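Protein modeling request. Please complete all fields; requests missing the sequence field cannot be processed.
Requester role: graduate student
Desired output: 3D structure, token encoding
Chains: 1
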Amino acid sequence: MPRRSRVVIPNCPHHIVQTGHNRQVVFLADNDYEFYLETLNEWRQSNEIRVYAWCLMKNQIHLIVEPPDDVSQLGQLMKRLSGRQTRYMNRIEDRSGTLWESRYKSSPIQADQYLLACIRYIELIPVATRAVKHAEEYQWSSYNARIKGQGHMTPDLDPCFLALGDNHAKRTLFYQDYVKSDIPAGEWAFIKEAVARGQLTGNRQFIEHVETITGRRIEHRRPGRPISNKTDQYS
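Delivered output (235 residues):
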């Protein structure tokens, strides 16, 4: 049975997830994380991709990126990222073979309703997996770059973040409170399921809008089951 082609929408944020082959570790040392971010920072410009958030874990990456009118630029960026990181790690480890699962996962995001929630979701992954207690303690996500301007690259400022206040100080204060606030029941499961199944992170109206502009029928699913805490998201 042929696999379903991705839904990629121009000028729309997408949640991207890519996992190590057989869930193997893909980042062994700080230099490995740095190399990936340097590649992302370099090629997001040449591919005209806006990068709103990222989180690099030992065996998985999460990105929120927005392709331009030419949506093929998104696929080209991911091909470059995975290929260059594979060659780098194979050279470091004196090995050969694939580093990643063959197909990354992608979910277009309804920006006005879910973009900020998706950014919070991936920047809290290190907390959810108990790698750290607080988002600011993890150096391989976009959180500190967003709040303090620290890190190896700077996220593009999405319209939802810019709408949080009329200056950077107000926006970051609001966002910090937002990250620490209670997460609505079912929100994390809904986001996780959307990207895992390659579906849309949005409501019925968004799905109908995407069906109109793509000419494709988009599967609609019920929201994910409510979840009792953050730590069961990545078990």
